[in-house]
Amino acid sequence: MDVKAIGYDSWTTLHFAVRFGYDIEIAKVLLKCGVDRHAEDEDGEKAIDRAKSEEMKKLLSVGDCELEEALKDVKIPKFTADDLNADAETIAALLPK
Question: 41: domain CATH number?
Answer without folding.
Answer: 1.25.40.20
